[in-house]
Amino acid sequence: MADTGEQYEASASALGYLFQFAKALHICIEQWMSGDMDWSVAVEAADDVEIHQGPDTRLIQLKQRADGVRMTDLAEDLWKTLRIWAEAAKADRIVLAETKLFLLTTAEIPEGSAAFCLQPRSSQHRDEDRALNMLREARRASKATKGSLPKCFDAFDNLDRGDRPLQRSLMSRIEILSGTPDIKEVRTALQGLAAFAVGHEAAKAFLVRLEGWFYDRVIEQMQTPGGRPVTGIEFDEMLSDLQRQFRHDNLPIDPDISGMDSDPSQAGDQQFVRQLGLIGVGADRIGLAVRDYVRAFAQRSRWSTENLLRAGELGKYERKLVEEWQSRFAEMAEELGPEATEEEKKKEARLIYRWVDREARFPIRSGCDETFVTKGSYHMLADELKVGWHPDFSARLIALLEPARAR
User: Fold this and answer.
1) Cβ burial, residue 195 (10 Å; 0-12/13-18/19+)
2) CA 77, CA 382: separation in Å to the nearest integer?
3) How far is CA 27 from CA 62, 148, 232, 335, in A?
4) What is the DSSP letter of 365?
5) pTM for the full model?
6) What is the Cα–Cα distance from 127 to 136, expressed in whole angstroms?
7) CA distance 373 to 28
8) Where does residue 28 rank: exposed (0-12), middle (13-18), buried (19+ CB within 10 A)?
9) Is 372 helix (H, G, I), strand (E, B) or coil?
């Protein structure tokens, strides 16, 4: 097991990545709310967060630090950031004239420091020449010979070597903002935006799905060399689709559930499987029935856990399913009469089940028409013997259970 120090460093590093992801998502929502879809956002590409909008590029460095930490003229956060940007500019990986560089930190910026002088112009404290002089002076005064600072100093010095001095150009592109919201505050802001999009009651469930999609998408981008950034059009399509799923007349269908597989052998003792066995349904169709049952059970459970269902909604839905089944079941019993043979009963029962399998489509809400919800809900009702297919399903299955109950 790692010692306490290692655990702290690992936690801080993980928290930093989560902060980066959350902030990138927040930026995407802000970009989307601007109404302009001509943008893209990438994480851990040219910088922590890279934004392209039209001809402009914004590179963002994010620093989350404990309360009381101050960004002095020799702060590693400041110099490590300068090194990243200096090396990129020197190697022409970024075009300074077309790139804005932002350092967002939760740390304090001491008044009169270099970082203080690199705040946005709106702060009325911006003085690029003074900031550059202070950084040069700090670099000269530093006695550091080990650690990261010497390499940072070298990268900064290298900017002005050769026939193309770039230190002053770099200063002109940098903006440093202190008091940046930390991960907790960013997540609170995301919750607020989610509530604005779908209402307070569904905000948490909406945000869980939005974060899940975004994190998967960013991981895909990061795992692929030159991976595609999240684009404004792509984000708009996803967000609009997610909003539609949370409308008053709809419920979300989650991809991890709609793609869920199942093992029919694990459901052999369940009543809905026995019901299918009574009427001679084949193994392949039983496998599909188990799949629908598992998906419907999982999705309904998630809706309930997330409080997305209205009071009594599931009961009302099941009552509708039962009543639709009742009329067909009664008609079958009437047509068969008391003298029907077992083969005749099975044949008619398979027609009732075929109706469930192929025709019965009753959305729990008008916009939620995923077929596994209806079919799986019927199997859940069959499991409780509230519906059935064989004319004598109740008596047959109770008889099967009696010996087991007697033991």
Assistant:
1) middle
2) 63
3) 13, 30, 11, 65
4) B
5) 0.85
6) 15
7) 33
8) buried
9) helix
With contact defined as beta carbons under 8 Å apart, do 60 and 13 qualify?
Answer: no
For residue 371, give the nearest of 354, 384, 358, 381 by alpha carbon: 358
DSSP string, 75-104: -HHHHHHHHHHHHHHHTTSS-GGGEEEEEE
Q: What are phi and psi of 15, to 5 degrees?
A: -65, -35
Backbone angles phi, psi at 369, to 5 degrees: -110, 25
Residue 23 tokens read as 């902030």
Q: What is the distance between the alpha carbons of residues 51 and 105, in angstroms, rounded to a whole number?
A: 18
Please identify which residue in the block is written with the tokens 């009552």: 319
The four Cα atoms 386, 390, 395, 401 give a dihedral, to 10 degrees, of -80
Q: Are 296 and 379 in contact (CB under 8 A)?
A: yes
Alpha-carbon distance 362 to 366, whole Å?
Answer: 9
pLDDT in tens, the chain (407 residues): 445 555 556 677 788 889 999 999 999 999 999 998 999 999 999 899 999 998 899 999 999 888 889 999 999 999 999 999 999 999 999 999 999 999 999 999 999 999 999 999 999 999 999 999 999 999 999 998 888 999 999 999 999 988 888 999 999 999 999 999 999 999 999 999 999 999 999 999 999 999 999 999 999 999 988 899 999 999 999 999 999 999 999 999 999 999 999 888 888 899 999 999 999 999 999 999 999 999 999 999 999 999 999 999 999 999 999 999 999 999 999 999 889 999 999 999 999 999 999 999 999 999 999 999 999 999 999 999 999 999 999 888 877 766 555 55
Residue with tokens 């598992």: 294
What is the side-by-side order of every strand in the sheet holding 49-53? 174-177, 99-105, 56-63, 49-53, 39-43, 230-231
